[in-house]
């Protein structure tokens, strides 16, 4: 049977999965050249055989096709039936000389008198008496702590095993690894430096040829060709470096930026000569689009915006020079889209929507030229998606839904035309997902879940068709997560956890295949985080805490790789917050607060590093809100109020600096609400004044866009809070007026979309409050009860509200007459 794997890792799935995954990654990549994915191929079964014994034939086949067996031994491995079975099978079919041992727990001691390891050695029974002399083994007992797996010492010990598998001295292997790292970095610098020399020489040749007209035309042609080659190479360099360095692990983000800056400057220098061709200008535009995406990945929206605007400007010039060139028209539409994406990230939603609509207009015109062109049909569907995504952020849910459904219709037609086209099937799955997302946002959960299920069915087929397609696997993991989110809301928690675990399993496999892929690491951390959050709701606090610690460990490793990577720092702060939530659920308030304060410390540091960054200021305000809520939960209301006020101060400054930014205005209203909620007995007038500041903001927002249902709902919340405060102060008539304004808004929303369960529950709340202040109590309570019973009958009443039915029934029974 041909050898497929260089090594097979046998280990205890219960205790040593993190070590096994890390070891696989290190052994596969040590000494690899920059262009290689891996040097060795290592098999590691990620499924527990105790749970799925039917997998044993596949394990036998993998053992047969492996050159070495790496045994991670420990007391758990020694007592594992399946580890012993793997070792026994190996020794039955292969030499003991090809079995390598790594100790993860316990003690290994060689007994010369017995001619074997000591009797209490944690080894599988199949190894008894199989060694005539002490074999070489490595001690990994210090690495059961996941945080230690990223250390240089772990890599050094893993190199012992990798060297044995490759049949080379360990020193040579580590030298290769060091040279490979240096070579990758040197290659990037040398590429840019060499190209700069080449470009300068080419530019000099060209200028000389122009000035010295007596020189033969042949020399001028040669110089122009050299300049064209240099320009084309510069554009290619920018494109390739942007792709290669975008997610490079272990390379500081500041260094990535310097390399990209140098390449971009070279590209600009050559472009400024103006002695170029349309094709070179087009390649420059394409490279700038890729550069924009690279800057987005680094969190540098300002630089991304500049690159995207330059790309679009180039294509607009080209199209103006030749309007009949459909290829350039299509490229211009792509540049409009890329600019729209970056504008949306910058919070400039109106401009983003304009850019995407400009792209859409071009694509509609192209479709008139060639209605049968499937590439252009797909482009048009993407434009509908992009427009829908912006509309959704503005609260225009119904318009967004219409746009997404236009896209869905195109993709359904394409997929039915060629069912074997994997890309078109993937497009269809994503379109169903987009439709599902907006339906969920509109409160139409059943329809949204059905759309997600349609997407899942396609995604599962694609993933089964090509298990090695990482992109399809990642898509599938995202769909599982989205379905889980809906299942949680409708009270199907066990099913939600099942979907989340499926997503987690996919991401663990993807990370195991490429430990250097930082995006996959971030996705894995997110999966641990999501499961942890659900386990808290399920009361599984110990498990929740463990999942959040695993998420935190990954994010701490990423942050340590590159402390200047602001996205990773921000994710780390989120992990501290989540860990704080888990500890709060366990009533460990002091430890929880310590983690919330770490969250705040990172947010404060990010803002200090870039004081003008409005995004970091907003993040800090959110961190103060989280800390404030935790302090209130711990019974320290005055400290909580102080944190809320710190958040409020930031948001007041942000709103004043950009009064046209409606998101900042909404944040400010939320801060006023938070502060008002903690102004208790004796400070009712101050609380009322604070709530009225929130009300003024929300009235302005609602009048700006009356169709924005989120802002209408926010406005109803302000009226409700003011009514509740006035009621507590004994000012019944004023409270009644506030509640009636609230109910008018909520009745309108409920009529607008009867299927929105959240709006129905909002209406129940204000009906109950009106009944409490004696406003048509019987009819108000009867209507509230009718809504709750209908939701319960349709299985749409969340678990937290199910007790309300009995509460209102008792209130009705206690009414006089």
Overall mean pLDDT score? 82
Structural class, by secondary structure, is mainly alpha
Strand order within the widest beta sheet: 2-1-3-4-7
Shape: globular
How many helices? The count is: 31
Residue stretches low in confidence (pLDDT < 50, at least 5 long) are 47-54, 181-185, 194-202, 218-253
The major β-sheet equals:
5 strands, parallel
Over the alpha carbons, how many angstroms does the gyration radius reach? 31 Å
How far apart, in Å, are the first and last alpha carbons?
Answer: 89 Å
Question: What is the strand content?
Answer: under 5%
| Extended strand count | 7
DSSP helix fraction: over 70%
Give an account of the 3D structure:
73% of the residues lie in helices and 4% in strands. It has 31 helices and seven strands. It has helices at 17-29, 56-64, 75-78, 81-93, 152-166, 170-211, 217-245, 253-271, 278-297, 301-321, 326-345, 349-369, 374-393, 397-417, 422-441, 445-465, 470-489, 493-513, 518-537, 541-561, 566-585, 589-609, 614-633, 637-657, 662-677, 684-704, 709-728, 732-752, 757-772, 777-793, 804-813, and strands at residues 5-10, 42-44, 66-73, 99-103, 110-111, 116-117, 137-139. It has a five-stranded parallel β-sheet with strand order 2-1-3-4-7, sandwiched between helices. The protein has a two-stranded antiparallel ribbon with strand order 5-6. Helix 18 runs antiparallel to helix 19 and helix 21 (566-585) packs antiparallel against helix 22. 45% of the residues are buried.
């Amino acid at each position: 049977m041909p050898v497929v794997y260089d090594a097979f890792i046998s280990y205890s799935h219960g205790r040593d999965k993190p070590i096994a995954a890390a070891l696989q990654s290190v052994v596969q990549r040590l000494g690899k050249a920059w262009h290689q994915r891996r040097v060795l191929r290592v098999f590691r079964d990620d499924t527990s055989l105790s749970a799925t014994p039917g997998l044993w034939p596949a394990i036998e086949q993998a053992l047969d096709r492996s050159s070495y067996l790496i045994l991670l031994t420990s007391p758990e491995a020694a007592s594992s039936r399946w580890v012993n079975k793997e070792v026994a099978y190996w020794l039955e079919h292969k030499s003991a000389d090809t079995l390598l041992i790594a100790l993860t727990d316990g003690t290994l001691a060689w007994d010369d008198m017995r001619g074997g390891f000591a009797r209490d050695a944690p080894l599988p029974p199949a190894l008894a008496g199989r060694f005539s002399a002490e074999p070489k083994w490595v001690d990994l007992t210090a690495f059961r702590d996941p945080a230690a797996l990223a250390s240089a010492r772990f890599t050094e010990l893993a190199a012992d095993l990798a060297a044995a598998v490759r049949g080379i001295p360990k020193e040579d292997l580590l030298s290769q690894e060091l040279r490979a790292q240096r070579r990758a970095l040197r290659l990037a610098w040398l590429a840019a430096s060499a190209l700069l020399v080449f470009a300068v020489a080419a530019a000099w040749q060209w200028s000389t040829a122009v000035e010295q007209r007596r020189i033969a035309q042949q020399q001028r042609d040669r110089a122009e060709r050299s300049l064209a080659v240099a320009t084309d190479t510069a554009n290619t360099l920018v494109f390739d470096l942007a792709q290669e360095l975008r997610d490079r692990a272990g390379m500081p983000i500041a260094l990535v930026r310097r390399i990209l800056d140098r390449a971009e400057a070279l590209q600009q220098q050559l472009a400024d000569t103006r002695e170029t061709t349309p094709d070179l200008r087009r390649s420059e535009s394409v490279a700038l689009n890729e550069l924009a995406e690279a800057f987005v990945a680094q969190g540098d929206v300002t630089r991304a915006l500049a690159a995207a605007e330059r790309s679009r400007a180039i294509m607009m010039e080209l199209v103006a020079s030749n309007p009949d060139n459909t290829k350039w028209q299509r490229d211009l539409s792509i540049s409009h889209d890329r600019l729209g994406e970056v504008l949306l990230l910058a919070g400039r939603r109106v401009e983003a929507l304009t850019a995407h609509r400009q792209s859409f207009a071009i694509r509609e015109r192209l479709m008139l030229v060639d209605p049968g062109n499937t590439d252009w049909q797909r482009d048009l569907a993407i434009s509908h998606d992009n427009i829908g995504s912006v509309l959704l952020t503005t609260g225009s849910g119904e318009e967004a839904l219409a746009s997404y459904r236009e896209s869905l219709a195109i993709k359904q037609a394409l997929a039915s035309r060629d069912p074997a086209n994997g890309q078109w099937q993937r497009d269809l799955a994503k379109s169903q997902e987009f439709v599902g997302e907006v339906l969920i946002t509109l409160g139409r959960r059943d329809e949204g879940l059905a759309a997600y299920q349609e997407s899942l069915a396609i995604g599962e087929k694609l993933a089964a068709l090509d298990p090695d397609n990482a992109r399809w696997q990642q898509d599938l993991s995202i769909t599982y997560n989205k379905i889980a989110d809906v299942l949680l809301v409708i009270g199907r928690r066990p099913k939600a956890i099942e979907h989340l675990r499926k997503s987690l399993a996919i991401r663990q496999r993807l990370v195991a295949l490429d430990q250097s892929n930082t995006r996959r690491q971030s996705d894995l951390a997110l999966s641990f985080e999501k499961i942890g959050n659900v386990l808290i709701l399920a009361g599984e606090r110990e498990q929740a805490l463990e999942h959040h610690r695993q998420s935190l460990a990954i994010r701490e490793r990423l942050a340590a790789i590159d402390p200047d990577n602001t996205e990773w720092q921000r994710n780390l702060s989120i992990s501290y917050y989540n860990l704080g939530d888990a500890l709060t659920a366990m009533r460990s308030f002091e430890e929880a607060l310590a983690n919330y304060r770490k969250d705040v410390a990172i947010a404060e540091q990010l803002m200090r590093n870039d004081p003008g960054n409005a995004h970091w200021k907003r993040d800090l305000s959110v961190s103060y809100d989280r800390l404030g809520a935790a302090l209130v939960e711990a019974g320290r209301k005055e400290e909580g109020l102080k944190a809320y006020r710190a958040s409020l101060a930031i948001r007041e400054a942000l709103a004043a600096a950009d009064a046209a930014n409606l998101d900042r205005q909404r944040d400010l209203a939320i801060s006023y609400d938070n502060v008002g909620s903690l102004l208790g007995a004796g400070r009712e007038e101050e609380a009322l004044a604070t709530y009225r500041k929130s009300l003024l903001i929300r009235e302005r927002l609602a009048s700006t866009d009356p169709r924005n249902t989120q802002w209408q709902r926010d406005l109803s919340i302000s009226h409700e809070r003011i009514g509740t405060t006035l009621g507590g102060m004994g000012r019944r008539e004023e409270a009644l007026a506030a509640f009636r304004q609230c109910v008018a808004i909520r009745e309108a929303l409920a009529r607008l979309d009867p299927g929105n369960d959240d709006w129905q529950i909002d209406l129940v709340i204000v009906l109950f409050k009106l009944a409490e202040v004696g406003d048509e109590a019987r009819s108000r309570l009867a209507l509230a009860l009718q809504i709750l019973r209908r939701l319960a009958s349709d299985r749409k009443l969340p678990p937290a509200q199910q007790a309300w039915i009995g509460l209102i029934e008792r209130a009705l029974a206690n009414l006089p007459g």
